[in-house]
Write a structure and sequence with these properties.
mainly alpha
């Protein structure tokens, strides 16, 4: 039997042992080296799970940011909205895992990711005679691509069903703006994932490390008193600042683990000790970088 042209065109075997014409494999199947569609029954790699966690963390962090940003008057009541956002993320994650194969099981099967083109099979439909297109578009990375869409759909639904009632009951007129913000950034995340999923898959550890360093610098720069002692006091006395700092460190640790996979623990585990370094460098060198003191140099 001749092989199929194109990277992702394959033949499907029916119940009688007959093979179809070359075309797209069904969901949950992937073409092998013999141009046959084989069912994906392997488990996701640790890196795959970390990618899925990263996509979930992005929406969760954005929810927390807009809850805080849209409420200028900080109070302990905002913890209800933060808790609601976390609960929505957990519910959405569990529901998303339960609806993909095997349905009703938190353990999922996946197709292996071998190259960047696996995420963009749409642009690899062959045209043998430069006229007729053989449509072989499929999800070669099943379910890593669709699972994120499903997660965001559940996140939107759980937010609409849960958060407005909590906001109305505990924080009247103060929780609606964060909901409106989510109605804007969730579609933006969906579009971003649809177009850049493959690039994000290969670069998210670097994105996480870079963004966590930049945002901790922005957080520290927002304090009115830019001195080592005052910055230390602000983070010792204020629980909110401690939580923000710890969240940045957790994201930084996640980025290091995602990047290294801790393949060589004796070498990579000590790198986790560098997690507080960006914040400490800022705090202890702030007196040399304060723009208000440049005129006196």
């Amino acid at each position: 039997m001749p092989g199929c042209i194109g990277l992702y065109c394959g033949r499907t075997e029916d119940q009688y042992g007959n093979y179809s014409e070359c075309g797209a494999c069904a969901s949950g199947f992937r073409v092998d080296e013999n141009s046959l569609c084989k069912k994906c029954d392997g488990a996701p790699l640790n890196y795959d799970w970390m990618y899925l966690c990263f996509m979930a963390i992005v929406s969760l962090v954005l929810n927390w940011f807009f809850i805080d940003f849209t409420n200028k008057r900080k109070s302990s009541q905002l913890l209800i909205l933060h808790g609601s956002a976390l609960l929505e993320a957990l519910i959405s994650g569990v529901c998303a895992l339960l609806v993909v194969n095997p349905v009703g099981n938190l353990d999922i099967t996946s197709c292996p990711v071998t190259q960047l083109s696996d995420w963009y099979t749409l642009v690899y439909n062959p045209t043998p005679d430069y006229v007729t297109v053989i449509h072989c578009t499929q999800e070669a990375v099943y379910p890593l691509y669709t699972l994120v869409f499903i997660y965001y759909a559940f996140s939107l639904a759980s937010m609409v069903l849960l958060r407005p009632f909590l906001a109305a009951k505990f924080i009247p007129r103060r929780g609606t703006k964060s909901i409106y913000a989510a109605l804007f950034f969730y579609p933006a995340l969906i579009c971003l994932h649809a177009v850049l999923a493959g690039l994000i898959y290969y670069s998210f550890p670097y994105i996480l490390l870079t963004v966590s360093v930049i945002t901790i610098a922005i957080h520290l720069s927002l304090f009115k008193e830019q001195s080592t002692l005052e910055l230390l006091k602000a983070h010792v006395k204020d629980g909110r600042n401690i939580v923000i700092l710890l969240c940045h460190w957790a994201l930084h640790a996640f980025g290091i683990i995602s990047l290294t996979q801790l393949e060589y623990p004796k070498f990579y585990l000590p790198l986790l000790c560098l997690i507080p370094l960006p914040a400490l460098i800022y705090i202890f060198t702030v007196k040399f970088t304060d723009p208000s003191k440049l005129d006196s140099v």
